[in-house]
Amino acid sequence: MVASKLSQASVAIIITSTRTPRVCPKIANIIKDMVEEADKNETKLSLVDLADFKLPIYDETVVPYQVPSQASYANEHSRRWSAEISKHDAYVLVIPEYNYGMAGSTKNAIDYLRNEWIGKPAAIVSYGMTGGKNASEQVKTSLEGTEMCVSPTRPQLVFFKSDETSDIFTAMHKGELGERSREIWTTKDKQDILKAFEELKEALKTPSAENRN
User: Fold this and answer.
1) What are the NADPH-dependent FMN reductase-like domain coordinates in residue numbering (predicted)?
2) pLDDT of 131-141, one tens digit each?
C-alpha cells in the first residue's frame, strides 16, 4: 500500500544507465542532493541502481501483467527487480539518451514489470548532448502505457560545450561530469528539477494514491 502521508512516502531515484563507464550515478546523486535539500524530509528518498539487478532482455515465460494474480516470476533477477520497485511509492527516472532515443536498459527495466508500476507517480530527468528530449518523450509514453502518472515538467540536462570542448566526451569516455555542466544543472536547471519533484509529490497526495497496490 502507498502511504497516506508524504512523510511516509518512499521515492526511488532510479539510475537507468548500465554502461561502463557511465555518468548517470553522478547525475542521480546531484538530483538527490538537490531534492533532499528542498524536500526537508517530507519523503524518504533512495537511490536505486539498475546495474545492480543485471537484468537480461526479458526472459520470463509469463507476461508481466499476469504477476502476481495469475503467475509468478521464475527468475531471481525478475523477483529482485519486482521486489525493489514494489517497495516504493513513486519514482524519479534519471535517463540517458543514446542515438537520439531511450537506452535499451531503460526500456527493458520498464517492460519487465506491469502491476508494480500501475497508478504510481513518476518524474523523468533526461540528459544528453541535446538534453535527451527524444528519450524523455519515449520514456513518458512507456510509463503512461503502464498507467503511471508522469510529472508534466521533464527536465532535460544539456552537457556544456564550447568551441574548444564539450563535457559530453569526458562523460562518455571516463564517466566523469564536467564542472561547467554541474554548475549549469545545479543553478539554471534546478528550478525545473524541483518543479518536477513537487508535481510528483502532488500526485502522491491525490485520492487515487491511497488505493495503489
Assistant:
1) 11-152
2) 999 999 999 99
pLDDT at 1 over 90: no
For residue 186, what are the CA distances in angstroms to 32, 114, 153, 190, 198? 11, 33, 16, 5, 17
* pTM of the predicted model over 0.85: yes
Angle between helices 179-187 and 190-205 (to 10 degrees): 50
Within a 10 A sphere around the Cβ of 15, how many other Cβ atoms? Answer: 24
Q: List the grid coordinates of 20.
A: 561502463
Alpha-carbon distance 187 to 61, whole Å?
A: 47
Distance CA(105)–CA(95), nearest Å, equals: 10
In tens, the pLDDT along 140-162 reads 999 999 999 999 999 999 999 99
The class level of CATH for 6-205 reads alpha beta
Indicate the Cα dihedral angle 109, 98, 153, 142, nearest 10°. -40
Q: Say how many C-beta atoms besides its own lie within 10 A of residue 36's C-beta.
A: 13
Nearest to 181 by CA among 169, 192, 191, 173: 169
